[in-house]
Amino acid sequence: MSWGLALHGGAGDIDKSVDPAPYTKALSECLDRGVAVLTGKSKPSFSPHEHLNPAMQAVIETVIALEDCPLFNAGRGSVLNELGKFEMDAQVMDNRGHCGACTGLTSIRNPVLAAERIMTKSKHAFITSPGAEQFAIREGLRTESFDYFLTEAQVKQLEIARKSVNQESIDYDMTEEEEAAIDAAIAEQPGSVDNGLTGTVGAVAKDAAGNYAFAISTGGLTNKMQGRVGDTPILGAGGYVNDMAAVCATGVGELFLYHNVCGQVCAAMEYGGMSLQEASRLKIGKLPAEAGGVIGVDSDGRVVFEFSSVGVMRAMAESSGRRGVALWEEWEEKNF
């Protein structure tokens, strides 16, 4: 049977002057790790629960790779809240009635694994911190110090956000002056990257046995209020799965929460007879301009991207041979 996998690294007003090379390289590497697990060519880097199907293992592996890359706003690349602290959220779900979500993690290296453990090792579906943090630690998940997550670029972006009338910052929606300040901060710290400029990371997959799954993770918004929760850990908003598709979102979290975007896309397919492309286009078309977008995979293993923002950092691969990596509308790599 067919399979498909797609991932995203965030949406926004991505300046065309941005050098795409570091991003396309990272996205491609994360895609390769997920595809290798999905197709059985390699084992996941974590110890999966015996009931995790290949689709779920693949999306978790993909998101782990994204969380470990400081280019993206999740895990190591997470942004700082109003108190200069990290609060990370994650969620996983499959089409077999399993889901897990967590919010407010501060030291767990891979929040997506905390969501997976909540799904497989607890009696619950959603745990907030400090309970989620304590549970993850009891489960033996790797923790990191504050300094592991911190970069000068994150600090600089928080300073800019605080000075901009307490403005929250998401994605690439920044003035030239702000971007220049962050670039300068990055230049002062060799090896660092422009953390905090993207919203979330996520992955969707369908495996050859017909299983669907998604995984999603985020550091949230720069300068967000302590305790703020966006769409990422909320079922139906940040992602959803049924027996027809897996869908996850990136963009302005409050809008995706209010419109229950991913749940609505799946409902339009199940009850309205729409294709994944039609349902995604309908729902994103009803959101304000620049709201963000969704990625999804359907029963044919066909990957769909639908977004209203200037760009979405994304990558995909299908059993049909289609493969691509892109930041903007144009694909940087094609194998169709």
Description:
This protein is of the alpha+beta class. It contains 10 helices and 13 strands. The strands form 2 sheets. A 9-stranded mixed sheet has the order 4-3-2-6-5-1-11-12-13. It has a 4-stranded antiparallel sheet with strand order 7-8-9-10. A hairpin with a 4-residue loop joins strand 2 and strand 3. The two termini are 19 Å apart. The model is unreliable at 170-174 and 185-197 (pLDDT under 50).
What attributes does this structure have?
single chain; 336 residues; alpha+beta; nine-stranded mixed sheet; four-stranded antiparallel sheet; 32% helix; 22% strand
Summarize the structure.
The protein has helices spanning 21-38, 54-68, 111-121, 131-138, 146-149, 152-163, 176-187, 253-259, 261-272, 276-285, and strands spanning 4-12, 88-94, 99-105, 126-128, 201-206, 212-218, 239-241, 245-251, 292-298, 303-307, 311-318, 323-326, 333-334. The chain is an alpha+beta fold and 336 residues long.
